[in-house]
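Example 3.2
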Amino acid sequence: MIDCREMRPLAAGYAAGRLAAPERAEAAAHLATCAACRERAAIEGALDDALARLPRHRAPAALRRALEERLAAAIPSPAASPPRRRARGLRGWGAALAGACAAAALIVTVARLPGVRGHATGGLVADVVSDHLRVVSSARPAAIESGGIHQVKPWFTGKLDFAPRVAFSGDDEFPLVGGNIGHLDDRKTAEFLFKHRLHSITLLVFMPDGLSWPAGPGKRLGRLDVDEEIARGFSVLLWRDQGLGYALVSDVNLRDLEQLATQINGG
């Protein structure tokens, strides 16, 4: 079996599904016994998801014209230019191309800065799933162990800029395991961790302002409309209630997750 040192360069390829069958089998065997490497692989997967969701913007017409003029000036006609002149032209072209790449990188960076929106519904669901994967791969997912909802909720005081409203304290079917601080896009979330048999369930509570939600009507569960999504094999339920956003995610079947959502929302 490979060790942690050998696993490090394989983590990104494993998360993205790019490893050949023998390497993937060795990596899977190691991850089954190593929580630290599981967390690293989950982070690599979340990073791949984030890069894939970066918005792509068409350059303004004025910028395109300016770049075209610079490229035209930097690359003279080969037939009319002596070799030395052509070499200088190629260097100029390289500088212009580097400038264009820097501009593109700047656009991507700005698009991901906090406060700059462009978050599609698919991105929101993917972020929810990535946060759940971070939880389940962590060696210690709960920063506060559950002694009931009245012990977990006060732990968030001073750690968030809002008070999470969750009344359900868990039961025999869905025991409350604990809580933690998570992150969703550019904001902190309250994580409430539940179990259902051998399955882990994460409830995220967060400020929903600026996030894009599904446009269509959701499914009625109890007193609320809930949007149901499937991503990477995980079920995700999204809803808003009294100014807060809620996301429930797990690999349990959708009916069980709906049952928990109904109990969280008070029936």
